[in-house]
Each structure stands twice: as C-alpha cells, then as structure tokens.
Design a protein that fits this description.
Elements (H helix, E strand, L loop, with lengths): L1 H4 L4 H34 L4 H41 L7 E2 H15 L5 E8 L2 H8 L1 H18 L5 E6 L2 E7 L3 H17 L13 E8 L5 H17 L4 E6 L7 E4 L2
Parallel strand pairs: 1-3, 5-6
Antiparallel strand pairs: 2-4, 2-5, 3-4, 6-7
C-alpha cells in the first residue's frame, strides 16, 4: 500500500487526512452515544473506563480501515483525472488536443446561440521542417513547447488553445471583434519572434503565420476553421511571419501584419 499511496499529491493527501478524520470522528461520536446508552441502562451513566473504551476502540480498529478505503478512493480519483487529461490534452505542449479543442469551441458556440462574438485563429510554425532536419525531432519538440508557451502568455483567462496536429495550433478568443482579434494575432506573432530558442547554444529565430476568422452573428467550428485556414494559407503565401484575419461574413478583407 505504501508504494501506491506515496504517489498521491500533497493535495490528495490533504483530502485523505480530512476524510479519514471526519469519518473517524463520526465513528467516535456514534460509539460514545451507543456506549452511553448501553451503560446508562445498567449504571445510570457512562464512567471513565467506558468513555475511554468508546473513544479508543473506533480509533484503533476503524481509523486504519477508514484510511485505507479513503486512500484507495483518492488513488482512483487521481487515476480518472489523469485518464481524462490524457484523452483531452496533448502530452507535449499541454494544449487541448484537436478533438477536445473543436468540441469546446462548438460547445461555446452552441451555448451563445446567434448572439455571440469571437475569433478562431489558426497558427502554423514557419519553416518547421528545417528545424527538424537540422537539429532532430527532439529539438523540434522543444521548439513546439516554446511556441505554445509564447502563445499562452498572450491569452486571457477563458481563451482556448489547442494543438491541431504537427506544428499547427488553434486559438479561440470568445467575445472578440475584428480589431481585438487583429491585435491579439499580432501580439502572438511578436511573442513567438521574441521567444528564446537556442539549440546547441545558438539563438534561432522562430516565427509563425496566423490566419483568423471573426464572427458576430453565430457560427460553427467547421465554418470558422475553413475561413481561418484560408487566411493562414494567404499569410504563408505572402511571405510568412504574418497575421491575416477576416470576418466570417462574405467581405473578403484580410489584414496582413509582418515584422519589420
């Protein structure tokens, strides 16, 4: 039991202590009540010896048993949480995986009906194959974590980030219009440019291209993804290290931003 229980986090151990203490305290109280009732029948009240027996017996017998049960329950709860995270998050970047990201965006869109506003950004690392070819896939993984961290540093509480596959990320910005979406896309692009990535001790420049789709009258993930992916393609073709954001409406206007 010790080997398994030692894997619990400090928060889990706190829950174990609290539950064990609570259940054991309840057992002590019930034992005192029952003992007092029984001894009251024979001796018109509980004496000191009876009181000690009533307290010590459940502590000695019930305490360890309760602790074992609570520890097992906490281990099961932690295992379920880990399984849930494995099914929802990308293990490398700690971003939502593609399925979970799409599901959460669709859930948000469905919850707001036709009155919500927001933006979907598609972000792709520029020239990523060259990093893998030059330094190897392990260093490429490091670059992905640097990019994910840079993106996350710009986001607000409530924004969503997902790894869509390979070197591509998705970001959902609830409640944003065209202007704020362009500003956020530009800040993400600049944050990646500033990020420290130094394989073999040599600083290497990272950059991303960004395509975005904003909406103001309801949408679904497939529609937003199609427009954002088109804008991403435009940013790539225009020279990379750019952000192109367009509304979901038929207006084919895109804003391109590039570092000096």
């Amino acid at each position: 039991m010790h080997g398994a229980s030692s894997k619990l986090s400090s928060r889990s151990w706190l829950r174990v202590y609290r539950l064990t203490g609570l259940i054991t305290s309840i057992a002590v109280i019930l034992s005192i009540i029952i003992t007092n009732s029984i001894m009251g029948t024979f001796a018109q009240g509980i004496n000191v010896q009876g009181l000690l027996v009533a307290i010590i017996t459940p502590l000695a017998l019930g305490g360890p048993s309760v602790a074992i049960v609570v520890i097992r329950q906490e281990q099961l709860r932690q295992a379920n949480l880990q399984l849930q995270k494995l099914a929802t998050y990308d293990f490398l970047t700690d971003c939502l995986n593609r399925g979970a990201f799409a599901a959460r965006v669709d859930s948000w869109l469905a919850g707001t009906g036709a009155g919500g506003t927001g933006t979907l950004l598609m972000i792709d690392a520029d020239n990523f194959k060259a990093i893998n070819d030059l330094y190897g896939h392990d260093i490429g993984d490091v670059a992905l974590t640097v990019i994910a961290r840079s993106i996350r540093s710009i986001l607000r509480e409530g924004d969503l980030i997902g790894r869509m596959g390979g070197e591509e990320f998705g970001v959902f910005l609830p409640g944003t219009g065209q202007g704020q979406a362009e500003l956020t896309a530009e800040r993400i692009r600049a944050a990646v440019n500033r990020a420290r990535f130094a394989p073999a001790g040599e600083q290497r420049h990272l950059s991303v291209s960004i395509g975005g789709a904003t909406f103001a009258c309801g949408a679904n993930f497939a529609e937003l993804f199609r427009i954002a992916d088109q804008r991403l393609y435009c940013a790539k073709n225009a020279g990379r290290n750019m952000a192109a954001v367009a509304p979901l409406s038929p207006e084919p206007v895109a804003t391109l931003r590039r570092s000096a």
